[in-house]
Amino acid sequence: MQYCCCQWYRSPGKNGSHFLPSSDLFSPKERADVMLSTTCCCVMLASLLAMACAFGPLQLLKLYGVPYLVFVMWLDLVTYLHHHGSPEQQLPWYRGEEWSYLRGGLTTVDRDYGWINNIHHDIGTHVIHHLFPQIPHYHLVEAVSMRFFFLLVLFIYI
Questions:
Q1: Residue 40 in contact with residue 29, Cβ under 8 Å?
Q2: How far is 81 from 72, CA to CA, in rounded Å?
Q3: What are the tens digits of pLDDT across the range 121-144?
Q4: Sign of torsion, CA 135 137 138 141?
Q5: Whole-angstrom distance, CA of residue 19 vs CA of residue 132
Q6: Distances in Å between the alpha carbon of 77 and those of 27, 56, 80, 145?
Q7: Does pLDDT of 33 surpass 80?
Q8: How many Å apart are CA 121 and CA 136, to the nearest integer?
């Protein structure tokens, strides 16, 4: 619920909404995409409301709400593990003027999730994903094996 509120109202002291095409978060060329996304969210909410009316709220909670909650908790856990390290490998946490896109990308950790890597599009290859988000997920493992080359190219261009 808090995530949805932050998307609509943003954090305290920040302006803009992720659902309003006129928001200062988006350039004029992105406004059509925002309208489409907002329309899809509204259609989904209307569908959930219709299903709650047709099958009952308890059934909707059981078949949609609980699996969705498990999915969100899993993604939160994975994000936490990538961005916070471990007791043996503490990662710095940058805020405000200290933070930059490159610093944020370099202070993440790759993790091996075993068989789950295959069903989650190689989710353990997190550092290279942050540094080069344009690389498709199906090339991430290959990109990780070439990370020295990527970092060298990044160093040359910075």
A1: no
A2: 14
A3: 777 788 888 887 888 888 888 877
A4: positive
A5: 27
A6: 32, 31, 5, 25
A7: yes
A8: 10
